[in-house]
Amino acid sequence: MGTHLPLEPGSARTAAAVIPQQAIGVTVQFGVNFFPVVDPAKKSASDYFDEALRLVSLAEELGFEHAQCVEHYFSPYGGYLPDPVTFLTAAAARTSRIRIGTGAVIPAFTHPLKLAGKLAMLDNLSHGRLDVGFGRAFLPQEFEAFGIDIDESRARFAEGVEVCRRLWSEQDVVWEGSFQRFGPVTMLPEPVQKPHPPIFIASAMSPDSCAAAGRAGYHLQVVPSVTSREQLQSMLAGYREAWREAGHPGSPRIQIKYTCYVAEDRAKALDLAETFEVNYVEHMAGAVASWGRTRSDAYRGYEQFVEKVKKYDFRQSHADNKVLAGTPDEVREQIAVLVDWFGADPTLSLQFNPGHMPYEDSERAMRLFAEHVMPAFTGPEQAA
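and the corresponding structure tokens:
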């Protein structure tokens, strides 16, 4: 799934809220993500990749924790990134410290032997900086093009994740599953990170999926704009509880994804935000139109996307903190509210170059964010 789905109303608490005391002096990590909702007539793929890779290098320079990208096909709604591994390989070659991640890859569309091998190779090329996010996909036309029954998506997803995990951490793997049978197979190259790269599960709306990820010891990627604030809080609470009850060592990693528009001038920031959020919604409307004729027990309620997209209201989305936009002070206040809602432990994964936004605006926003927003969330021990 993409960076955000600006559909559901959340709390009406606005960006102008006073910073909660519990959000002051906490440590929050920030990353960058790339989801190209781009009309090829407005920006070519080569230009988009050149600009995105420049932003990856800048993100490392400015101290962002990760850079990640999503997998989609065939349309301006993410179609520039059919293979995240290719983009992330180029990103890894340009950097040395920032973590790189899939947010997410789709096991249903790639044989797990191929997918596990590509990702293990990328972990080596990046010297152990890879985070692997897995997702189910949700667009009927993608499943149709690959000749895969959309009703099998959950089972294919679960099998694909488990096959990759075993291939990365075991030798002479024999697999007798519902969709794949092979073995014994020993994967080469082995991943650098042991027993395997960190695994993230992307979840849009399902508390059950979040809890299952916690029980399995997997990390989590969520998209807040597709849920209400209360629903997301419940999803995160269930995930954290499942992680603790399963007795997994350490702390889970949670990534929450937002678009982010920052400018010295508030009017410019909001104009950019409205322009490119509406661009996102318009292209999303085309991508989800197939839900008007598709029904699946694996995606209950998704047929409502078509009508929900038509009702999108940018001002309400901004007021509900589903998109970050404004001056550095205003965006800092929005993030403080998010910390109050969701805790300081999630990493906020931010998209600074949505749609065909001019590169100069994206770079300026990242620099303003790093200079004026990030320092407020470095924690007391680092700020001293």
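(Above: one complete record from the training split.) DSSP finds 13 helices and eleven strands in the chain.
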